[in-house]
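Lab notebook page, bench 4
Experiment: in silico fold of construct C2
Operator: M.H.
Input chain length: 322 residues
Purpose: comparison with the prior construct
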Amino acid sequence: MEKPSNLLLKVSRRLFTNLDDQASFVDALMNPQPFPPCILWCQEKPENSPFPVEIPTPWQPSFVDRLYLGEKPGQHPLHQQGYFYCLDFSSVFAASILFTIPQPVPIVFDMCAAPGGKSIFAWKALEPDLLISNEVIGKRLGMLISNLKRCHISPSGVVNRDSSIFAEMFPLSSNLVLVDAPCTGQSLLAKGEKAPGCFHPTAINKSANRQKRIIANSAQIVAPQGYLAYMTCTYSPEENEQVCEWFLQRFPQFQAVEVTHLSAYQSHLTTIPCYRVFPQKRLGAGAFTALFKNTAEGEGKPIDLDAISSMWIYKNLEITTS
C-alpha cells in the first residue's frame, strides 16, 4: 500500500492533535471511499421521490436529498430536465450558512461560480431578485451556463470578469457576495481524484494570496448590512482560518457571524466563528465555511444595470434597464 507523503502527514498534524484523528484523516485521503450521492431539487420535488433517501441531518434543507450509496441520479431523466442538480454533500454543509442571512436578499453575487452549485443553492434558498454568477476562467464558463440553463435558474446572468473590475464598478451594491474561493483542492483526494502538489507550501501560499485578493475585492461590493460568505473545499489553515483572520484585520467593518446550526463543527484552529467538516466524518469530501456581515451604516448603492447588461455572457431574466 502506498505511504502517505510527508507533506500530507505534516498537514494532518497541524489539523489534529489526536493521533487517531490524524490517522483517520490520512486514511480518508489515501484510501478514498465513495460518498452517498446528493441532489438539490431546483424544481418542485415530486411527491414520491424517484430515489431512496438517507435520514437528513439537522441542518440539511428540505430541497436537498442525500441518496443511498450506489444511486446514479445523473442518469435519471429528471436530471436532464433540470429538476435537480448533483453536488457533494460538503457543498450543502458550506452553503447552509446562507440560511443565517435574513430575507429578503435582492441581489446575490457569486464571485467564483463555476460549475454553479453554490449559485443554484443561493437562488433556491434566498430567492433573490437577481443572481449574478461570475467566472473568471473562460474554459469553465460553458459548464456554469449549461447548469444554470438546464436547471431553469431565473432571474440570473453570467459574467466573466476579474473581481477587481466589480469592486471598481459596483461598490456597496450587493446584499450577499459569495466567494467559493479557488483553492488547492485537497478534498479531491477524498473523492479518489488527482490533485498533484496540493500539499506543497508553495502551492498553498500562492492559493492563499489569490484568495485574499478575491475576498478583499469582494468585500468592496457588499452593501452596508450585507453579507459576505467565504468557503473552500480544502484543508490547509493558510487557505481557511488564516484568510479569515487576515480579512477581519484588513476590513474591520466586517464581523464574523455565528451560525448556530453548525456550532458542533466550529473550527478548533481559531476563535473566529467558522466551520469545518472532514472526509472521515463521511458527510462529503470536506469543506470550510464562514459568514461575515458588513456592519457599516448607510445606504447601499443600486447596481448599475446598464453597465452590467453589456457584460452578460448568458442571461435568463426580465429586468428593465431604464
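Observations: The chain has a mean pLDDT of 95. Residues 90-294 form a domain with the Rossmann fold fold (CATH 3.40.50.150).
Next step: discuss at group meeting.
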